[in-house]
Design goal:
The complex is a heterodimer of chains A (about 260) and B (about 450).
Chain A: H1 10-15, E1 22-25, H2 27-32, H3 34-49, E2 54-55, H4 66-70, H5 74-90, E3 95-98, H6 101-110, E4 119-122, H7 123-132, E5 147-150, H8 164-172, E6 176-177, H9 208-218, E7 223-226, H10 229-241, E8 249-252, H11 253-260
Parallel strand pairs in A: 1-2, 1-3, 3-4, 5-6, 5-7, 7-8
Chain B: H1 4-31, H2 43-55, H3 64-93, H4 104-132, H5 147-179, H6 205-229, H7 237-246, H8 260-270, H9 283-286, H10 302-310, H11 316-320, H12 322-325, H13 332-353, H14 363-366, H15 370-374, H16 381-385, H17 392-406, H18 412-424
């Protein structure tokens, strides 16, 4: 994954006097985290293959403020939110898609009251709509018949009741979709939410990601599918901790679809 | 002389209900110590939630065993109250089984009360065994030691005794009806107490009357004592579950509330026309500046305080909490119990002093420690698990807000994360200008 891909920015669109169909909100993990960048690229490839007219904010994007808000720093959150809203409103953004459920939740639920009202979609929802419109093909390819379990991100599932879009996409990959004993509404957190990603856990007898990885391993999967860059990190670490990285891959739903087609 | 039992009954009834009302008014006053929050929107959705969640017990049955048993006890509790109505009328007017004129319907009612009473008894025994014999983990967490444990068992004993008294009353009544005793008219159908009744075979009419009257009086006295016990126990949920589910948060679970006080400050900071040297306009702004977040119960809103009184310590939240499951100190149930205990303490302080006098204590540190608050992943498992729409998460977030915005007491890792966001717009120390680098890597 070391080839450059074409990623238009909002500034470029503006210069041409055009408006893209959708803004792709990359998010901090998607921009800077080495693992999450692969998800970002996979998603961009899918957008290209479906001929979606999209743009990113690029260097004009800034943290949504989610980890600050969850940590209790409402000031910092609102400063970030107001700044981002100013940028997005200046570009007259209508629709936003993001591959991060934390960005998704914050943009969708916490920005409107501060003046940022957009139609916000998680990338699995957006890909599902492309699939339904016949713009995107999803086929099994090398994943056909593999055992896959989907880990529900809290901020997509319980927080916003999105359970089916990622599963619908996975089913189209003709894989064997197996559920963990705790899934959907009862899904267990990976341990990263609420700003935990950025600090050491309090003392206890286990790390949350290990507990969750054990749930996943119980289903004897070939692949653990995730829909969140932070869950992805936590589950990847968990799989390594259990020394299962040879037999279990942790992949984002977008990566699965893109890799299946060798994009 | 003839009216003495009636007068005594009326006096006891007035005292019992009066004391209960007095304490309920305290509960309402304490809840109103909370800050205002608007929960007046979407009335139809709110009624629907109350009907489904509280009346319909929809979330209880997510755990089928305790859910079904709870429905039995709950239905028994509600339906047997029709019998209590008859007992009260009989008690006031000195009548006996005043509803007997209903004939076949009366037989049906009494029969169903008896069956329900029996099922309630069985259900309560199973509940007791789950707590004390099977020792289900969520009833043995550290916050359940001492009073909370005894409280849970005491409620079960109360219900066992009340159901037994009800059935003994009917059994002796059945004997008296068979003897043709005066007042004891032939009425009712006794599918359960007919099996208890043989225990009283061969007893004199007087002895039977003493047993019947004894059970009747103890039963109604027991109900009044139980009613007044609610205030001192976790058991208020039988009443508060209804308003609590009605006033529950309707927003998506992921949405935290917006602090308006902060919005005003942020707007002022971002306003290019704001005069940084402006003198505050009036006395209003001279007053004590608003506290950000919560360090004590008065900083929480009334819906959060209603949550605290509604919690019946079932522990479903704690058993679903990822932090608790992995041995961290955080227990969402303890957050609710601590909030309620502190609120009661503040209420008692007001009763004693007329208004709240600083007692050198607060919810933060004296009840809930920062270590508990920082262990939360904000995953909403506790909120999802609660059968009566309580949100421990909203209290955790409000207390984190106090720690961070008033005390700058975040864990140092989080301080680093926040200064990164402030300086370069990402939680990690990467340059804002490198945000697009991924596209050519």
């Amino acid at each position: 994954m070391s080839e450059a891909i074409r990623v238009p920015t909002m500034a470029e669109y503006m210069a041409e006097g055009k408006q893209p169909e959708v803004l792709f909100w990359v998010g901090c993990a998607g921009s800077f985290d080495d693992r999450a960048k692969k998800i970002t690229k996979a998603f961009v490839k899918l957008l290209h293959s479906a001929n979606v007219d999209f743009a990113v904010l690029g260097t004009e994007e800034s943290c949504t403020g989610d980890p600050a808000k969850r940590a209790g720093n409402e000031f910092l959150f609102q400063m970030q939110a107001v700044t981002n809203i100013e940028v997005m409103n200046a570009y007259e953004i209508k629709t936003v898609v993001t591959a991060c459920p934390h960005c998704f939740n914050t943009l969708k639920n916490e920005y409107p009251v501060l003046g940022g009202e957009y139609k916000v979609m998680h990338h699995t929802q957006f890909l599902k709509s492309l699939l339904d419109e016949g713009r995107l093909t999803v086929e099994g390819g090398k994943f056909k018949g593999k055992r896959i379990t989907f880990h529900d991100p809290c901020y997509l599932g319980r927080a916003n009741n999105v359970y089916e879009a990622p599963r619908d996409l996975l089913r189209r990959l003709e894989v064997e979709l197996i559920e963990m004993k705790r899934c959907k509404k009862n899904g267990l957190c990976c341990g990263a939410g609420g700003a935990q990603m950025f600090k050491e856990p309090e003392s206890g007898n286990k790390d949350v990601n290990i507990e969750r990885t054990e749930d996943a391993i119980e289903t004897k999967p070939d692949i653990i599918a995730a829909g969140c860059p932070f869950c992805n990190t936590m589950m990847t670490d968990g799989v390594k901790n259990k020394e299962k990285e040879e037999s279990i891959e942790v992949l984002d739903v977008a990566e699965l679809i893109a890799n299946a087609q060798d994009l | 002389m003839h009216y003495i039992p009636n007068i005594l009954f009326v006096l006891i009834l007035i005292a019992g209900i009066g004391y209960f009302i007095k304490n309920i008014r305290k509960v309402i006053r304490n809840i109103r110590l909370g800050k205002d929050v608007d929960r007046s929107n979407n009335k139809s959705e709110r009624f629907k939630n109350m009907a489904m969640i509280a009346l319909g017990q929809s979330k209880m049955v997510r755990r089928p065993i305790s859910g079904v048993l709870h429905i039995v006890v709950y239905l028994g509790f509600i339906i047997i109250n029709i019998e209590v109505l008859e007992i009260i009328i009989d008690g006031v007017f000195g009548t006996h089984r005043i509803f007997a004129f209903l004939g076949g319907l009366y037989n049906f009612l009494i029969a169903s009360f008896e069956i329900l009473a029996f099922l309630v008894f069985i259900g309560v025994v199973v509940f007791w065994m789950r707590r004390n014999v099977i020792k289900i983990k969520r009833f043995w967490n550290s916050e359940m030691k001492g009073w909370p444990k005894n409280d849970g068992n005491l409620i079960l004993y109360f219900e066992m005794v009340l159901m037994t008294l009800f059935l003994v009353m009917n059994a002796s009544d059945l004997q008296l009806q068979a003897l043709g005793a005066e007042h004891y008219i032939k009425a009712g159908s006794y599918p359960i107490s007919q099996f208890i009744s043989p225990l009283f075979n061969g007893m004199s009419e007087n002895a039977l009357i003493i047993i019947e009257r004894g059970a009747w009086w103890l039963h109604i006295l027991g109900i009044l004592v139980f009613l007044n016990y609610l205030y001192f126990s976790k058991h208020l949920h039988i009443l508060l579950a209804f308003p609590n589910t009605y006033y529950g948060d309707l927003k998506p679970k992921g949405q935290l509330d917006n602090l308006e006080a902060v919005t005003n400050e942020v707007k002022l900071m971002m306003d290019p026309n704001a005069d940084p040297f402006a003198v505050p306009e009036d006395d209003q702004t001279q007053g004590e500046p608003e506290k950000f977040g919560a360090s004590d119960v008065m900083d929480l809103n009334w819906a959060q305080l209603l949550n605290a009184y509604t919690c019946t310590e079932c522990g479903r939240c704690t058993s679903e909490c990822p932090a608790n499951q992995t041995g961290k100190k955080l227990s969402p149930r303890k957050i609710m119990m601590d909030t309620r205990d502190r609120l009661k303490e503040v209420g008692d302080n007001i009763d004693e002093n007329g208004s709240f006098v600083d007692d050198g204590k607060q919810l933060l540190n004296d009840y809930i420690t920062a270590e508990e608050l920082w262990a939360c992943t904000s995953c909403n498992a506790c909120v999802e698990a609660c059968p009566v729409s309580i949100s421990p998460l909203s209290i955790i977030i409000d207390m984190r807000r106090y720690l961070v915005m008033e005390e700058s007491a975040a864990p140092s890792d989080l301080n680093n994360m926040m200064s990164n966001i402030e300086n370069n717009g990402a939680p990690w120390p990467f340059n804002q200008m490198d945000r697009m680098n991924w596209s050519n890597e």
